[in-house]
Amino acid sequence: MHATLLSVLGLALLGALRAQDGAPVQADFQQDKITGKWYSIGLASNSNWFKEKKHLMKMCTTVISATEDGNLEVTSTYPKGDRCEKRNSLYTKTEQPGRFSYNSPRWGSKHDIRVVETNYDEYALVATQISKSTGTSTMVLLYSRTKELSPERLERFTQFSREQGLTDEEILILPWT
């Protein structure tokens, strides 16, 4: 009985530590290869903002470029009504290649951004933990170099999003614009 209890507690502790560590980061991440134009193909989130705006969302383009000091300038262009809107963000590199931080002055939030998986010329799977004074949320993005991805890549996005605790109602394949 005592050994069983210790085993259960050990597994619970291991699970808690793994959850605290967050999503994995792409092994041997090569920052220069992530730059360029991407399409946002999928978006998953448990944030209230996402739940309120989900029905309005469409595919957007994102251009990633490296700054002189090794950070990433991320410019997303997305449809809003009958026009396009741009949003710029500076992702600050961390000691771990493939992991970045971003502070949003607009929303008062801190973002822990991880490139989870990519082959650089087809797709990138990115996980973000967002912390605000009101709580935390999870966001998963699926980027593609083209407007279409294979069913296998879409399924991997859905599977990974579920692994992050997101439900099917919180996972969206974005419609074309």
TrEMBL record:
GO terms for biological process: mast cell degranulation; prostaglandin biosynthetic process. Keywords: Cytoplasm, Disulfide bond, Endoplasmic reticulum, Fatty acid biosynthesis, Fatty acid metabolism, Glycoprotein, Golgi apparatus, Isomerase, Lipid biosynthesis, Lipid metabolism, Mast cell degranulation, Membrane, Nucleus, Prostaglandin biosynthesis, Prostaglandin metabolism, Secreted, Signal, Transport. It is found in: Cytoplasm, Perinuclear region; Golgi apparatus; Nucleus membrane; Rough endoplasmic reticulum. It comes from the Eukaryota. GO terms for cellular component: extracellular space; Golgi apparatus; nuclear membrane; perinuclear region of cytoplasm; rough endoplasmic reticulum. Its EC number is 5.3.99.2. It catalyses: prostaglandin H2 = prostaglandin D2. Residues 35-177 form the Lipocalin/cytosolic fatty-acid binding domain. The keyword Phosphoprotein does not apply. Residues 1-19 form the signal peptide. The keyword Nucleus applies. GO terms for molecular function: prostaglandin-D synthase activity; small molecule binding. Belongs to the calycin superfamily. Lipocalin family. Monomer. PANTHER family: LIPOCALIN, PROSTAGLANDIN-H2 D-ISOMERASE. This is Prostaglandin-H2 D-isomerase. It comes from Heliornis fulica. The lineage of its organism: Eukaryota, Metazoa, Chordata, Craniata, Vertebrata.
